[in-house]
Design brief:
3 helices
């Protein structure tokens, strides 16, 4: 079942970004993922203010692909850099409707 990663990222130190983008994109592709959106152009329409500089949406063939990416030892140093240099929130959800 298709799954999606949704990330809210606000850099606190941009030094990690140039060395992160290309290798992490390759790791995402290695695990079957692809970017659907990676943008600072977003607008919150509802709810309490939850600011973030960037919103990122990734599509995965299945939730396991997202989890395998997140736990890939090759990703670990890049994840550590992103977490140290930003306020980040990462959600993974399966493309299903539990309320149907």
């Amino acid at each position: 079942m298709t799954a999606y990663s949704v990330l809210f990222v606000t850099p606190t130190d941009e030094a990690w970004i140039p060395g992160y983008l290309a290798p992490v994109s390759a790791l995402i592709e290695k695990h079957g993922g692809k970017y659907l959106a990676r943008t600072a152009d977003h607008q919150q329409l509802e709810g309490e203010d939850f600011p973030a500089a960037l919103r990122v949406v990734l599509e995965w063939p299945a939730k396991e692909n997202a989890l395998n990416f997140e736990n890939d030892p090759d990703y670990a140093p890049f994840l550590a850099q992103r977490l140290a240099g930003s306020n980040s929130y990462h959600f993974v959800l399966e493309g299903k409707d539990d309320l149907a």
